[in-house]
Specification:
Blueprint lengths: L1 E7 L5 E5 L4 H10 L6 E5 L5 H12 L3 E5 L2 E5 L7 E2 L1 H4 L8 H9 L1 E5 L12 H9 L2 E6 L2 E6 L6 E3 L5 H12 L4 E5 L5 H12 L3 E3 L5 E5 L7 E4 L4 H13 L3 E5 L7 H10 L2 E5 L2 E5 L8 E3 L11 H8 L4 E6 L9 H7 L3 E5 L2 E6 L6 E3 L3 H13 L3 E5 L1 H5 L5 H7 L3 E7 L1
Parallel strand pairs: 2-15, 3-14, 6-7, 10-11, 18-19, 22-23
Antiparallel strand pairs: 1-23, 1-24, 3-5, 4-5, 7-9, 8-9, 11-13, 12-13, 15-17, 16-17, 19-21, 20-21
Helix pairs in contact: 1-2, 1-7, 4-6, 5-6, 6-7, 8-10, 8-12, 10-12
Length: 418
């Protein structure tokens, strides 16, 4: 027995939906709470499996974590361990983010290599390079990374690529490291800005997040804080595509438009009408769209986390579109599942050539988090019934996505099947 999603296509989505707090902002902020000498209250925390795993990780380290409605209370004063074991690390990629926080707090850390979606190589070399620059000696072996202070001091760090995880990890380690640390070629995602705001509210001295150079003045202590997490731009983008692919009319609340400009631009390019609306945006789908070409890039470029969802839309648009994936080498695993639904997509290296047309319902498998969301979107358009398995991937990053879609008029249900 396993749970599957059944989607019957052909219905235009209409109505109003509110976006949850950002998963990708919450996870590093939860890790950073390990640096606090007081109690942390986070608001707008989504109810997701990845959040549960990070809560378990913090608890294993000794923190007290309590969920209250949409809030999360984390008391890290009782943290008494700097080691995160393999059985928890393998459950989630973001588990590696505790490394920087543990080094900052204890000047020592032992963390198993993380798991997560198999969308491509996401090595820890940039993280390790940053930690080494700050004066922490990092050794690797038996599936673990072990770090210990040698001569911790602020330093200038040049990232080879603007890695989000490395930027966040280095920021956390540097916050309590004496001296001035400078991260050049830093990632610029909104989640980096949210982490900076959280750390600064605790007493850190960080500036430059959102730009390619971040400066961190090390402080001796960080206190407790209350912080509201930013809205999830990828969930918002997913519902924007849902409105577009169903040729619907949807008002999306709790959205920061500035975080979504690349998605807004490409949806407008294909012909979706997008209007600023009170407290959010309104998406009005059309019967006729134009194909387009998209290339994923680090922020502020088109996000790789929206690639699969946008490909679902392009697969319904007559003509030829091209999707180029520059971030992860394995992020076209959903193409085979789209083909089961009748999509005409050819992959050449890091480019997918999409000849849009009709889709038919089929039995498909969610190969990773965003691929799962994309299959739901394709099912909204496809003729007949689409049955999606491996919902564990989807549950990692979307809070009751089927219930939200149902409220907009989708014919979708989650049920146990043999």
């Amino acid at each position: 027995m396993e749970e599957r999603l059944l989607v019957r296509g052909g219905r235009s989505l209409k109505g109003q939906i509110s976006i949850s707090g950002s998963k990708n902002a919450t996870l590093p902020i939860m890790a950073a709470s390990l640096l606090s000498s007081g109690e942390v209250l986070l608001n707008d925390v989504p109810d997701l499996e990845d959040i549960n795993v990070m809560s378990d990780a913090l608890s294993i380290l000794g923190a007290k974590v309590k969920r209250e409605g949409r809030g999360l209370i984390i008391d890290g004063r009782s943290v008494n361990s700097f080691e995160l074991p393999e059985y928890i690390s393998r459950r989630m990629r973001a588990s590696n983010l505790v490394m920087g926080a543990l080094l900052g707090r204890f000047k020592e850390a032992r963390v198993a290599y993380p798991g997560g979606c198999a969308i491509g190589s996401r090595p820890m070399d940039l993280h390790i390079k940053g930690f080494n620059s700050l004066g922490y000696d990092i050794t690797e072996g038996f599936g673990y990374m072990y770090g210990k202070e040698v001569s911790a001091r602020g330093k200038e760090i040049m990232l080879d690529v603007p890695s989000v995880g490395a930027t966040e990890n280095i920021m956390m380690a540097a916050a309590l490291t004496p001296g001035t640390s400078i991260i050049r070629n830093a990632a610029r995602e909104p989640e980096i800005v949210d982490l900076q705001n959280f750390l600064n509210c605790m007493g850190a001295k960080i500036r430059g997040a959102g730009l390619d150079t971040i400066r961190i003045e090390g402080v001796k202590k960080l206190g407790g804080v209350e912080h509201s997490v930013i809205p999830d731009r990828i969930e918002a983008g997913t519902f924007m595509v849902a409105a577009a692919i169903s040729r619907g009319d949807v008002w999306i609340e709790n959205v920061v438009m500035e975080h979504l400009q690349p998605v807004v631009s490409k949806l407008s390019e294909v012909g979706v009408e997008i209007l600023p609306w009170s407290g959010g945006i309104r998406l009005i789908g059309k019967n006729h769209y134009k194909p387009t070409d998209i290339k994923t890039m680090p922020h502020p470029g088109f996000p790789t986390d929206m690639q699969a969802q946008m490909m679902a839309l392009l697969a319904t648009i007559p003509g030829t579109s091209v999707m180029v994936e520059t971030i992860f080498e394995n992020r076209f695993m959903h193409v085979q599942e789209f083909r089961r639904m009748g999509a005409d997509i050819k992959v050449e290296g890091r480019a997918a050539i999409i000849k849009g047309g009709e889709l038919e319902g089929a039995i498909v498998e969610s190969t990773d988090l965003r691929a799962g969301a994309a299959l739901i979107l394709a099912g909204l358009w496809a003729a007949g019934e689409t049955e999606i398995s491996r919902l564990d991937h989807i549950d990692r990053g979307y809070e009751n996505i089927h219930e939200k879609l149902k409220r907009l008029g989708a014919d979708i249900e989650r049920r146990l099947v043999h």
